[in-house]
Amino acid sequence: MMINTQAKKARGWVILPFLACFLLLVTSVYQQISDKHDILALLQQGEPTATHYEELEGIYKTYGLYDQAEHLLSYGVIASASGYGGPITLLINVSQEGTLKNAVLVEDSETPLYLRKVLEAGYPENLIGKTVTQPLAAHEDIDSVSGATRTTDGIMLAVEKGMFQVGKNQLGLTVPRLKTFHFQWQDGLVLLMLLVAILASARNMKKLRPWISAAAVFVFGFMENSSLTIGNYLSIVALKMPAFSERPIWYVIVIGVLLVTLLWGRNFYCSWLCPFGAVQEGLYKALNLADYRPNSQLISYARKSRWLFLWLAAMLALFFNNPGIASFEPFSVFFDGDGNTSQWMMMLLILLFSIFILRFWCRCFCPMGVLLDFIASGRRKGQQLFRNKLEPEEGKAEKEERQGEEEPGWAELGPVEGEALEEGGMKKEVAASRACSGCQKGESKREQHPLSSGDKLVAAALAAIWILIIGALLQNTGII
């Protein structure tokens, strides 16, 4: 009877991931179907009196808009440019005199907070009246919005694409040449750091890790605010990536980290380059005065919950057709001072408990960590399976010899590639981290110990942060 019960539970755990993936697929397909716009209704957002339209030639979809008396009202162009999270699409209306008559935001993939900041600054309405013969940046009354520069630039570039196309093709005017490739010196610095981290990790240059981590805090964190988020990878799933020519560094970081992790079988990003992880680790080393080891069961439950929140974030992002909604992480709050109320509260709790628990966010909540660890683990297991098929006996012997020695990523102190850190009590923390990884065999058979007062505080913090994660996601959607 017990065997049948266990078999049913095992089948349930196998079915659950497939059901979760099926729901994600259905949500994505539904959103793609329901998101089809009626062209005339869309064009009327920019030119309300238009009764019909004529499709014109152009790289970007262009329309002549007419009223009932067949008078040409304006030219409408639907153009997209890359913002912070992905494409920003606008409807641009240009008058016959060559001025911007209207600009309407149609679709975006931005983190809602960044977009709200730009809209509150007056974009894109503040561009109305500008001429097609002059770049928008040349106007003294137009400035990028601090803290949302990429979103601002994306809106301006989309408007310029529409204006310049109409100016050249329909009005026969001489228009400025659009910049087709965008690569700044800061992007070069990010690329250099990425290459150095890969090289240092490959050669196990542990002494460089603190310096690379500190540099990542400054470059990836405060300078560029380019921490990897789950929204980046949902942009790929939703086919809402930025254009390569406009955001090449996005592909270098997002696709580059994914490919290296997949081919290498090692989660080097969380170990070497994650700026928020480095901040937590710095807090732990600098301020930790207590020899506290968290209850392994608590950490195990928290680690498993990461999959639930990853799935929930993906569902909401796909349902609302905006990958930026999924970015509930507190990265932007810490490095840029921008976030919703839930993210601010979450960040404060994370920083407080990071003093006592090494990489509290990374270990218990980070969706990027669980995703990259899963990819790296899948690569290692696939490689081992392939070896076992080629050399069954040797493969089996090698697996037994290396059991428990595979590099797991940051979660078992992968950030230091298994290095035993020396600061007081850290060796115990390494052992505790390995013991509470939540994926070791036989964990369910461990003896249950009563929670200490410290463990009860951690349990309360876990529950509070789980609630705040849900709150952050709902605030991103605009539901609350």
TrEMBL record:
Xref: SMART domains: FMN_bind (SM00900)
FMN-binding domain segment(s): 83-166
Basic and acidic residues: compositionally biased ranges: 388-402
Lineage top rank: taxon: Bacteria
Gene Ontology MF, one: 4 iron, 4 sulfur cluster binding
Claim: Phosphoprotein is one of the keywords in the record: no
Region described as Disordered: spans on this chain: 387-415
Keywords: 4Fe-4S, Electron transport, Iron, Iron-sulfur, Membrane, Metal-binding, Transmembrane, Transmembrane helix, Transport
Transmembrane spans: 214-236, 248-265, 307-324, 344-362, 457-474
Family matches, as Pfam families: Fer4_5 (PF12801), FMN_bind (PF04205)
A GO CC term assigned to this protein in UniProt: plasma membrane
PANTHER family for the chain: FERREDOXIN-TYPE PROTEIN NAPH
Protein name listed in UniProt: FMN-binding domain protein
